DNA sequence: ATTACTGCAAACCCTTTGCACGGTT
DNA sequence: AACCGTGCAAAGGGTTTGCAGTAAT
């Protein structure tokens, strides 16, 4: 079965495996990119005819609970999901719409920075989204 | 007129003044708290009978464009609006649901911290939301 | 007089839910 | 056999929009 590798990842986490779940997880894991539920659905609907958007939502929730997927609410538009174990900063380019990530350490430093200035507030989850212009688009504009 | 002070603030920014706009701005400015559009509407509907939720949304947008109001998308629930000139970090308590802010400098430090770790990405807007437990709720739990 | 804000109503997008059937363990 | 994930369809919450009348400039 083509999805073998991906089925295993689900089984290891105690997630009941189905063709839908395996494919959705595969799409996210292989691409590593950010997907709205809609985009996941568009990506798989030809390979799994009849699949419903509601199934995509339900699966994404299961994958989140299993710690395989993280989601993020950007300043505009629908939620985006990606194959990452936990919350991390996002950089959204206003020009091309692309979403990227800062250095992995940046998340930890942000956590410390905010923690130091938040009085007695105990931070459990940190959601960071920066809007701006990515390196690629800045270069095009400059040149 | 009771809203005099608030009308002026709008006029200075070139915003056409109406009773609706003055009252919505007044509610936000006097309270300093975080409001959903719904909560704004509930707060004013008795003082301005017939006012529509859509008017609240349109007014909040105008106030944002005028730089008087900032909004934020929290991890869950509808957008919240408040009388602040610009984007700033939010601390959302998982116990009481309260929203607070870290020290004012924290925003700047976060900006620097993230900027230093984001390659060529030029940050224009920074959205930060931390979920956790506020000082008050932590104390109650401990005692 | 001109411009544009409001109320009203409907539409919109994103997401969740109830139910009966079919697939997984 | 027991369980639960799926397709289907409908509802739900939050937000936006078209329009005609009215108020602000």
Can you give a write-up of this model?
The structure is a homodimer of 143-residue chains. The first copy, chain A, is an alpha+beta fold and 143 residues long. Chain A has two domains: 79 residues, Winged helix-like DNA-binding domain superfamily/Winged helix DNA-binding domain (Arc Repressor Mutant, subunit A), CATH 1.10.10.10; 53 residues, Dna Ligase, domain 1. Chain A contains six helices and five strands. The first copy, chain A, has a three-stranded mixed β-sheet. The mean pLDDT of chain A is 94. Chains A and B meet through helix 5, strand 5 and helix 6 of A and helix 5, strand 5 and helix 6 of B. Chain A binds a DNA duplex (25 and 25 nucleotides) through helix 4.
Number of DSSP helical runs of chain A:
6
Query: Helix- and strand-based class of chain A?
Result: alpha+beta
- Rg of chain A, Cα atoms, Å: 17 Å
The H-and-E topology of chain A, N to C, reads as HHHHEEEEHEH
> How many domain modules of chain A?
2
Report how far apart the termini of chain A are: 49 Å
How much helical structure, as a percent, in the residues of chain A?
Answer: 40-55%
How would you describe the oligomerization state of the chains in this entry? homodimer
Query: Tally of extended strands of chain A?
Result: 5
Briefly, what CATH class of the largest domain in chain A? Mainly Alpha
**What fraction strand of chain A?**
15-25%
The global form of chain A is globular
Tell me the name of the CATH homologous superfamily of the largest domain in chain A.
Winged helix-like DNA-binding domain superfamily/Winged helix DNA-binding domain
């Amino acid at each position: 079965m083509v999805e073998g590798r991906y089925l295993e990842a689900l089984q290891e986490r105690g997630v009941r495996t189905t063709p839908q779940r395996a494919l959705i997880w595969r799409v996210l894991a292989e691409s590593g990119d950010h997907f709205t539920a809609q985009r996941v659905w568009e990506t798989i609907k030809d390979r799994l005819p009849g699949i419903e958007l509601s199934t995509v939502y339900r699966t994404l929730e299961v994958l989140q609970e299993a710690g395989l997927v993280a989601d993020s609410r950007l300043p505009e538009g629908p939620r985006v999901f990606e194959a990452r174990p936990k919350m991390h900063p996002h950089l959204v380019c206003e020009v091309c719409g692309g979403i990227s990530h800062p250095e992995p350490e940046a998340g930890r430093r942000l956590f410390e920075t905010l923690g130091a200035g938040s009085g007695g507030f105990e931070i459990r989850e940190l959601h960071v989204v920066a809007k701006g212009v990515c390196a690629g688009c800045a270069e095009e504009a400059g040149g």
